[in-house]
Amino acid sequence: MSTLGFVMLVHTALDRAEQVARHWTAAGCPVVIHVDRKVPRSVYEAFVRSCSNDPKILFSERHVCNWGGWGIVAATQSAAHMLLQRFPDVRHVYLASGACLPLRPVPELIDYLAARPRTDFIESATTKDVTWPVGGLDHERFTLRFPFSWRKQRKLFDAYVRFQRRIGTERKIPDGLVPHMGSQWWCLTRRTLSAILEDPNRPIYDRYFRRVWIPDESYFQTLARRYSTDIESRSLTLSKFDFQGKPHIFYDDHLHLLRRSDCFVARKIWRDADRLYQTFLNDQAATLKPAEPNPSKIDRVFTKAVERRTRGRDGLYMQSRFPRHGCENRLTSGPYSVFQGFSEMFEDFEPWLAKVTGMRVHGHLFAPDRVAFAGGVAVMNGGLTNHVGLRDYNPTAFLSNLIWNTRGERQCFQYGPGDNQDINWFLARDINAQISVVTGAWAVPLFRSGRSFSEIRSEAARLQRIETEQLEILRSTWTKARVRIWTMAEFVEAPMEPIRTVIDEILPTNSPPLSQAPRPVDLSGFGKFLQNLKNQGMHPYLMGDYPVEDHNEPAPRPILKPYLVH
Amino acid sequence: MRLRRKRRVYRCLLKSRELSIVRDRTKTIQPDDILLVSTVRNEKIRLPYFLRYYRKLGINHFLFIDNDSDDGTPEYLSAQPDVSLWTTSHSYKRATFGVDWVNYLLRRYAHGHWVLTVDPDEFFVYPFCDTRPIRALTDWLDNTGVRSFGAMLIDVYPKGPLTEEPYREGQDPLEIASWFDSGNYTITRNPIYGNLWIQGGPRCRVFFGDNPGKAPALNKIPLVRWNRRYTYVSSTHALLPRGLNLVYDDNGGEKSSGVLLHAKLIDTFPAKAKEELTRAQHYGASAEYKAYARHLTDAPTFWCEWSEKYINWRQLEILGLMSKGNWA
């Protein structure tokens, strides 16, 4: 007779439970099965009949098991009691469910436990040290009462919790108990388990735990701390939980992961995972050397799943991730740069920037008449077209799509008050945006346009109004983008300073210094042009204190010759 | 909203009189069977592969509504062992574009079942669909307490002109139309029903550049654990009660979702577009088909150099068109 016995809690997929139970008894281990009282009598009896030819499978007294209720503990108690009584050779009791599947040959588990005869494998941590996933209730599980079902009477449950908080209910925890919680699936020694079951104070503890929430995760975990001399606080059962505290399920395609985990038992297995049952229940070659369970690979897969479900991929807007305002984490998937006023100040800013940084440099993506993709292409990554109507239909989606579609490659684009302004708040709130503005530079193309002065005047007034509004947004307290703003007058003083700051931030730290400067536009006469606007009653203030006369020629002059930045 | 839902229920009961049963095998439906409901019209050429595809996924019973086909569709369908068939020659448009008929069948036969509502040119793809049958998905949804599962339409198209390679009966349409647009979709939230309104893709790119507001909606919620109180509101874009439309996370996380590969744009399409134009039975005064017919005369190709070639669901998940969510 084996020194290892199993307690199996079953409520569904009885055929699978039988398969696994027979696998264990074939290795000599007795199994006591508890079938949920909610399973209809006829089904139960058929199940008992079909197992009746195996003397090592016994059935214990049935209890009604509701999630988070006392029934599961009661069921475990009576089944464990029966196992200890009827099979006196059993030294370790392993608690399993009907959806558990042994991953390694049973003799390996028996040997493993025989080598650790006094060790109790039970995950058990104090409430202070762990945050458990569901409901936000940690310590309160032990100090409030929970007469209502969390699944079926959620409103009553929540209301009663609120009520108790308000009136300050604090249940007294029985003397000598320190609340601990942990995985429901444990493997205890006969010594510890019988101490728990035969404790003279058991009625007191049972009465207390009957009103604790989810006692199956705390009853044995707490009491084992009281009696055990050697607790190994981990579960031998591989069992992963999602962010709502529901167990992850294993399928056929997890076969290799499960095999490499070296865990003894896994749950929960999907009932139709034929290949898993087929593989792990037929005699497998024993592993060559006795390995310690190592679930870290599987852990990674499921941790990633939880992260994907709770945080998602930054900058992705799709059918099952559409964050409301403020919940986006990051508005776009990667950093990008917005330049305003630069291509107005230089003849060849875009090609120069592309050459210096090696990044994709677009023109004015949001211009009213065209979408100036880099290289003048009509379609970009992901099938994004240069159609103005499609862009303006949802400009922020256009931008977030562009950044998402070009993941891994930084995008730069030109922007200005002449462009579609609907993306301003999006840009400002996006931590990935690097926005550099030379205010008032929009006047340069006007100055060089040679259009009639009255036209220029009204256009200048319009652009100045728009840029002022935009600057207000960029300077607001909600702005998360890295914004740098220079007036045109400041910029003209020493144009390479700002450019170098901006580009140093984009380029990797150890890239060579800039060896070439972009070619500035000829601004002679611009001061007079501004004065003319003033004389016409329009006050251009965004350029800063731009000198009227070009007498200090040397100021813009240095940028005329190639500029070397060390 | 309750009134709207009641109205839909009332309409579906009213319109159920237009349906006459041709082949009734609904007695064979088992309590946990997964069902599929579809409305067809002259789609016989597509049906053999359609049935093969969904049988392989694990659909147990098919409920078809045939709207006045004359190409042998009803004969073909009634000979299938797992198909129940209804027929009607009434107006598709006046049955709210078929929704009333579908709602009736769902109400009558799908109560308590997981049911997939798709058109014969839509192919359901979900996370792990290459290794796990659809029951793995529905069991998992049951387990996590989810009642509805979203799957947006992704139009697939061939590389050359539509009519270049003809579709053979029984063929996998993805062999011909294996390209799709990966990153030009726009989304807004519909404040009335709480669902997302997704537009974009190749049809929008080629046909609706000047009028994107009229571009077809691509959001769909085809897989639902049905209850007789539920109704579809417009096609399978939205449901009532509204909670069923929350197939997306608005907190920054990703729920799990699938995709309906929409193999409409193959060589049968131009003829279909012309026919539908004369019948004027489609949504928005068939504006969609009008736009198509206008462009189709100048034989468009949907393919562009940034089109993606369809490989599998993992590709779609990496591109961000669908998500595993917390199903692992």
Automatic annotation (TrEMBL), chain A:
GO molecular function: metal ion binding; protein xylosyltransferase activity
GO CC terms: membrane
Main location as per UniProt: endoplasmic reticulum
Domain of life of the native organism: Bacteria
Alphabetical GO biological process terms: proteoglycan biosynthetic process
Organism in which the protein naturally occurs: Ruegeria marisrubri
Localization (cell): Endoplasmic reticulum membrane; Golgi apparatus membrane
Residue ranges of domain DUF5927 in the record: 267-566
UniProt entry keywords in alphabetical sequence: Disulfide bond, Endoplasmic reticulum, Glycoprotein, Glycosyltransferase, Golgi apparatus, Membrane, Metal-binding, Signal-anchor, Transferase, Transmembrane, Transmembrane helix
Pfam families in alphabetical order: Branch, DUF5927
Membrane topology: Single-pass type II membrane protein
Listed name of the protein: Peptide O-xylosyltransferase
UniProtKB/TrEMBL annotation, chain B:
Highest taxon listed in the record's lineage: Bacteria
Pfam families recorded: Glyco_tranf_2_4
Keywords: Transferase
GO molecular function, a single term: transferase activity
Classification via InterPro entries: Nucleotide-diphossugar_trans
Official protein name in the record: Glycosyl transferase family 2
Taxonomic source organism: Ruegeria marisrubri
